[in-house]
Design goal:
The structure holds 2 protein chains of 2 kinds.
Chain A lengths: L9 H56 L3 H11 L13 E6 L4 E4 L16 H11 L7 E3 L6 E10 L2 E11 L3 H46 L19 H63 L4 H24 L9 E2 L1 H10 L1 H7 L2 E7 L4 E4 H19 L4 E9 L2 E8 L27 H11 L3 E7 L2 E9 L5
Parallel strand pairs in A: 7-9
Antiparallel strand pairs in A: 1-2, 1-5, 3-4, 4-5, 6-8, 9-10, 10-12, 11-12
Helix pairs in contact in A: 1-2, 1-4, 5-6, 7-9, 9-10
Chain B lengths: L12 E5 L8 H15 L3 E5 L3 H9 L5 E3 L2 H6 L5 E7 L5 E2 L1 E6 L14 E4 L5 H13 L4 H4 L2 E4 L3 H10 L4 E5 H10 L1 H4 L2 E6 L3 E2 L3 E3 L5 H12 L5 H9 L4 E3 L7 H11 L1
Helix pairs in contact in B: 1-10, 4-11
Classes of the chains: A alpha+beta, B alpha/beta.
Chain lengths: ~475, ~260
């Protein structure tokens, strides 16, 4: 892929732009100044040349009238100043011609012999003559032949309103250049000097402006795959656009995180629901023949005459079928239609029930109960939930561990919390925590939490687990309707 | 009130100068004037003009007392003017006319300058005008049309400069001025080359106005003649590259008179 300037990182683009802006400004200003200077110089030179030509023309009238070549020569010599401050003010060619455009005198006698026609020198002087013939011969003219190295100021020598001849001053066009090149060079030098100071400042400034954006862009690239890596701690907390952008980005990250969590929970719930439906279906299918089989075994035990081996086999079958029945009924959690209400005393019962386990493991158990009276919730199911959670907690807490139970009724909700300080549930285990036959321990068939989940769902409650090293908390929330 | 009226001691003495010598050296002139005033015990002024003729007219008209002029105007007006003295150059009161061209040109004779530009010093100069005219006439040429263009520089030094810069292809100049310039301003003469020399002519004379007081003439002549005996006078002569002044007979200028007569014819 070809990368253009537009694809450059901001950390380069901003300083480069600043540099271009500074250079551009400097060049524009320099160019304007040089152009102005050139203009002024040119105007000065022209004004100077015109006035010199006029003075010479006035002074040379008498020598020309008197045909006094030497006097004319002395006059044009006096106009030349080889030590002039501005060399471009020095006329290269001073030529005095008579009314027939013949050389009367010049500052280059060998080049312009007296009495010869300057037009014989080069086409340039021929054009000068043509320019002289155009229009009023008594008016000063400035001629700049395009191909000549000089430009010319021609002033007439006027006596009594008649042009006797002309003073022609030729100034080198080229003599402007060295001074102007020097000036451009000087301007460049000053610009570079300024850049030397401005560039590091603009560089730092641009880097500082660009850095948050660059960091933000790097963070954005991590979204949505690796949201944790996209966290950027050092965005400036300013109120400008960058600060707002950083804030918005952080907000977006939080939203994304929440959404991801929700999606994960949804996945877990859906899976659990599917598993639940499957389990219930299988349980029903198994339950019907199972009931028949157990009845048949019982009938035969009671009314048939089985021998010893048959009795033993029947007993084996009965135990096995009973175990299947227990397992299946555990899977098949059903709200019994008829049940008494849950009472605070139920919790005391439960604590007594788990007393054996507590003793065995030397676990310390804490119970905080804030339930004033019976709640319109099926007692058996709530007891089941609490029993399973307590047994799990005691088992997880381990020897000498700590388990706490909290039960609270508030705002038409029963809030149950069971916590322990035992081994925590890892992130890998968490998604499968409530699936059947999943057990973190060697003992147990892995149906305890499955049952809890199924009951809570059937009671339209909510369930959450929070587990970190040293503390694992199961929180359950079951709504109930107040009896009228 | 005429200036020709005899004046008493202490009245200003007026001396006309022409470029027969290097008369543009203002510093030298101030020194010379101071010396003359000291010696004569009276004020002295030098009178200079743009050409020989004006100075000659002034002395002829008695407006100035003495004048250092060329032999050519002297011979024209020698009936009116009194000859005072002539400079001694290389010990003798003679000089020549030089025909010069620019050093980097190939011209070797006057004849080769036909159709060229020529610079004369002054129409009243023997060496700078009369002699070259005479030469052309003697060669059967018409001095008016021989050159394509001629001009006067109104001084011998100007001729040297004009030829040196190429303003003129050739020029006529007095040998005394050219040789003096060659010593004190060699860069000027170095650009020129002498291609022909005239025979010797009587040197440029000091003359006195008509009707000059005899004593005054004698006193001034004596001062010129004694110049070399005085340290400052000798220094002034050295600066002029002269050996002194000497009395010369008027007939010594007959050579110039003959040439003038030939040219005028």
């Amino acid at each position: 892929m070809k990368l253009g300037f537009d694809d450059l990182s901001l950390r380069w683009k901003i300083p480069l732009r600043v540099m271009f802006a500074v250079l551009g400004t400097a060049f524009a200003v320099t160019a304007a100044l040089v152009a102005r200077e050139y203009d002024e110089r040119r105007q000065n030179l022209e004004a100077h040349a015109k006035s010199l030509a006029r003075v010479l023309a006035n002074t040379l009238v008498a020598p020309l009238l008197h045909d006094d070549v030497w006097r004319a020569w002395e006059i044009i010599q006096s106009a030349a100043d080889p030590s002039a401050i501005a060399p471009e003010l020095q006329a290269d060619v001073v030529l005095v011609t008579d009314n027939e455009f013949r050389v009367f005198v010049s500052n280059q006698p060998r080049r312009f012999p007296l009495g010869s026609s300057p037009a014989a020198q080069s086409g340039t002087y021929g054009r000068l003559r043509a320019a002289l013939l155009e229009g009023d011969p008594t008016v000063q003219k400035v001629v700049e032949p395009a191909d000549a190295q000089h430009y010319f100021v021609m002033s007439p020598l006027v006596a009594d309103g008649i042009a006797l001849g002309h003073v022609i001053l030729g100034y080198a066009k080229i003599s402007f250049l060295p001074r102007f090149m020097a000036q451009v060079g000087q301007a460049l030098f000053v610009t570079m000097l300024a850049l030397l100071f401005i560039m590091p400042i603009s560089w730092v400034w641009a880097r500082r402006t660009g850095a948050p954006l660059v960091a933000l862009a790097a963070a954005m690239r991590q979204v949505p795959e690796r949201i944790e890596a996209a966290e950027i701690p050092d965005l400036p907390k300013t109120r400008d656009e960058i600060g707002q952008l950083g804030e918005a980005f952080q907000r977006m990250l939080a939203e994304l995180k929440r959404k991801q969590e929700l999606e994960n929970q949804m996945l877990v719930s859906e899976r659990l629901a599917a598993v639940g439906r499957l389990a219930a279906g299988i349980a029903h299918e198994i339950n019907n023949p199972l009931g028949g089989m157990l009845t048949a075994i019982k009938t035969w035990q009671k009314h048939g005459q089985p021998d010893a081996i048959a009795m033993q086999t029947l007993s084996l079958l009965e135990r096995g079928l009973t175990q299947i029945k227990n397992t299946v009924s555990a899977l098949l959690v059903e709200t019994r239609t008829q049940d008494r209400s849950f009472e605070p005393a139920d919790i005391d019962d439960l604590l007594i029930l788990v007393e054996g386990e507590v003793q065995a493991r030397a676990v310390h158990i804490d119970a905080a109960v804030e339930i004033g009276s019976a709640l319109p919730l099926p007692a058996t199911l709530v007891r089941q939930i609490l029993l399973n959670l307590l047994l799990n907690a005691i088992a997880a807490a381990g020897d000498g561990g700590q388990v706490s139970l909290e039960a609270r009724a508030a705002e038409n909700k029963l809030l149950l919390t069971v916590a322990n300080d035992g081994e925590y549930i890892s992130d890998e285990q968490m998604p499968f925590l409530f699936e059947p036959f999943t057990s973190g321990r060697e003992s147990g068939h892995g149906l305890g939490l499955w049952v809890v989940y199924q009951i809570v769902r059937q009671l339209n409650g909510g369930l959450s687990v929070e587990s970190r090293p040293g503390r694992t908390v199961f929180s359950i929330e079951i709504p109930y309707a107040l009896s009228d | 009130m005429g200036l020709s009226v005899a004046r008493a001691q202490g009245e200003t003495l007026r001396i006309g100068l022409t470029p027969v010598f290097l008369d543009e050296q203002v510093g030298f002139l101030a020194r010379w004037r101071a010396w003359l005033e000291r010696k004569l015990q009276r004020p002295v002024v030098f009178v200079q003009r743009g050409n020989y003729r004006e100075v000659v007219d002034l002395v002829r008209g008695g407006k100035i007392d003495f004048a250092w002029i060329c032999g050519y105007p002297y011979v024209r007006y020698r009936e009116e003017l009194h000859l005072v003295a002539a400079p001694l150059w290389h010990g003798r009161p003679f000089y020549r006319s030089y025909l010069i061209v620019a050093a980097d040109t190939p011209y070797a004779s006057l004849a080769e300058l036909r159709g060229k530009v020529f610079a004369y010093s002054d129409p009243d100069s023997n060496s700078g005008f009369l002699y070259p005219q005479y030469r052309l006439i003697m060669q059967g040429e018409n001095p008016v049309s021989f050159f394509s263009r001629t001009f006067f520089t109104w001084s011998h030094r100007g001729v040297v400069e004009a030829v040196g810069v190429g303003l003129a292809d050739g020029g006529a100049v007095g040998s005394y001025v050219w040789e003096t310039l060659a010593e004190i301003k060699p860069h000027l003469t170095r650009r020129t080359r002498v291609i022909e020399q005239s025979p010797e002519f009587a040197h440029t004379p000091f003359v006195a106005r008509p009707g000059i007081d005899k004593d005054e003439l004698r006193r001034f002549r004596a001062l010129l003649l004694e110049m070399g005996n005085d340290p400052e006078g000798a220094e002034l002569l050295r600066l002029m590259r002269l050996d002194g002044f000497g009395v010369v007979p008027p007939k010594m200028y007959d050579g110039i008179a003959q040439i003038a007569a030939r040219v005028r014819r």
